[in-house]
Amino acid sequence: MAHSQGDHGGRDCLAGAIDCDIHPAVPSTRVLLPYLDDYWREHILRRGLERENLETSSYPANAPINCRPDWRLPSGPPGSSLAALQSHLLDRLRPSFAICNVIHGAQVMLSEDLSAALCRAINNWIRAEWLDQDPRLRASIVVPPHSAELAAEEIERCAPDRRFVQVLLLAMTELPLGRRQNWPIYRAAEAHGLPIGIHAGSSFRHPPSALGWPSYYLEDYVSQSQGFAAALNSLVSEGVFVKFPALKVVLIESGVTWLPASLWRLDKTWRGVRSEVPWLEQLPTETVRKHVRLTLQPFDAPPTEKQLQTLLEQLGSDRMLLFSSDYPHWHFDGDDALPAGLPADLVRKICVDNPLETYPRLKETMR
Amino acid sequence: MNRHVVAKVEDIQPGTRKIVTVKGREIGIFRVGDDFYGLINRCPHQGAPLCRGEIVSRLVAPSPGDYRLTRPGEMIRCPWHCWEFDIRTGQSLCDPNSVQARAFDVAVEPGRALVEGPFVAESVPVTVEETYVVVTL
C-alpha cells in the first residue's frame, strides 16, 4: 500500500492526468454472449460455460488488494460497474483518459480458438459498453497470447478503432515473452503504433516461481515482480527491440522498484557474453530506457523519501513512469494516488507527458 | 619516447601474439596478417592480463538470428570476464567510448635501418639481415 498521510497526488494534482491502468471487470460470462460469434455462442451455451465466471485466480476475492473497501460494489465483481468507476474515479480525480485493461480467463485458456473467441467478445464488449459510454475511456486489445497468429489477427481487427491504444499480455505465459513464436504479436503491434502492455499475471499452468509452486498467496504475489524481470530479460535478450525498433512495452503492476538492480545484473553479464547475443550492441539498460515504461501502482516504495530519490536516480530516466490508479485494486486511500515524495516536475511527466509519448493514439483525441 | 626493438618479425606468426616487457611494462604484440599492434597487458576493467586472453573474431548480427563473423582474429577477449577489445585500437565492444585498453605504436623495420639507431634494443640483438618489430614508448 502507498502511504496515505498528507496530500500527495490528490484531486487537483491529478486533474487532466492519464490513468494508464484501470480494470473494468466482466460481470459474468453471460454478458459476453451477445458479443460472441454465433459459433462460439453456441459452443459456450452447449458446454454451460456461461455459468462459469472465468476469472483468473490472480486476485482472490477476499484478498485486501483485490478491491479498495470503499470501491466494493453492492453486487458483481469489483470494477464491473461503469457508473461506479465514474463516481469513484473519473468524476472525482478527473483524469483526461483512463486505459481499461481487462484481465480475464480468456487470456489463459488452453484452447487457442476458444481463447481467441472470448477475447474478441471482450474487445467487442468493452467497446460497446465502456468506450462508447464514456469518452474518457480507452482500452487495451485483449488477445489469446498462446496463439501469436490469432493474437495478431485480433490486433488487426481492433486496431482501426483508435480508442484501442495498446495490446495486453500477461507477464508469465507458456513461453518467455521474447521468444520468436510471439513475434507476430509484436509485428502487428508495431505496425499499428500500439505499445505492448504486459500485466502482472500468469497462465497458472506453469509455476509462477522458478522454484515451483508456492504454498501461499503472499509468495505468489511477490513472485510477480520476478516474473516481470524474467519477461523483460527475455524481450531484451531475444532482440525484440532490435527486430521491432519502434515497439514500446509497458510493464503494468510490476512494482517498479525491482528494476534498477535487475538491469545492473543484465548489463554486467552482457559485457562478458555479448557475443552470444550479438544483436545487442547497446548496454541493455539503454535499450530498456528507450523502449520500456512502467505504470506506477502498485509502487514498491522504499522506506524513506530519501531512498526514493536515490531510486529515481537509479532509474536514470524521467520518461519511464506512467501514472496509474490500478482501480479498483487497493494501493492507496482517499485521493492520494501518487506515492509520496515525487518531485513536482516528475509528477507532470508521469501524469501527462510520458503517457502521451507512450500512447500516441491518445494525442489524436486530446480535448 | 624511445623506440624499442622487441622481436624479430618471424618470432610472431600471423594470428599469434608475444608478450614483451618494455620499460617495466608488459605489452602484448599482436600480429594480424602482416600488421602488428601493441596493447598494454592490463585490462582496463579489473587489471587482468588482457593480452593472454583468446584471440577471437567479432561476431555481429544486424538483426536477431542474422549471424555474421567479421574481422576474424582481430579481437582479444579478456581471460577474466570475457570483455572483448579491438586489437587494432584497444577499444572495448561493451563500452567503446569509455572503456579502452592502452594501445602502442608498433612498426616493422629492417635491421639495416635499426642498426643506425637511435633505438633501445633491450633484449633483441639486431642484425642488418633481419626484419624487426619496434614499439614506440
- At CATH level 2, the architecture of chain A is Alpha-Beta Barrel
* Main sheet summary of chain B: 4 strands, antiparallel
CATH architect. name of chain B: 3-layer Sandwich
Helical percent range of chain B?
Answer: under 10%
CATH top level assignment of chain B: Mainly Beta
The whole-number mean of residue pLDDT values of chain A reads 93
Question: Could you provide a short overview of the structure?
Answer:
The complex is a heterodimer of chains A (367) and B (137). Chain A is of the alpha/beta class.
Q: How is this structure best described in words?
A:
In chain A, β4 (164-172), α6 (183-191) and β5 form a beta-alpha-beta unit. Chain A is built from 13 helices and 8 strands. Chain A has one domain (11-358): TIM Barrel (Alpha-Beta Barrel). Chain A has an 8-stranded parallel beta sheet. Chain A has 367 residues and is α/β, with parallel strands linked by helices. Helix content of chain A is 39%, strand content 11%. The longest helix of chain A is centred in the middle third of the chain and has 21 residues, at 217-237. Chain B is mostly beta strands and 137 residues long. Chain B has 1 helix and 10 strands; from the N terminus they run βββββββββαβ. Chain B has one helix at 111-114, and strands at 3-8, 17-22, 25-32, 35-40, 54-60, 68-77, 84-86, 103-104, 106-110, 131-136. In chain B, β2 (17-22) and β3 (25-32) form a beta hairpin. Chain B is elongated, with a radius of gyration of 16 Å. Chain B starts with a strand and ends with a strand. The model of chain B has no long low-confidence stretch (mean pLDDT 92). Classes of the chains: A alpha/beta (367), B mainly beta (137). Chains A and B meet through α8 and α9 of A and β5 of B.
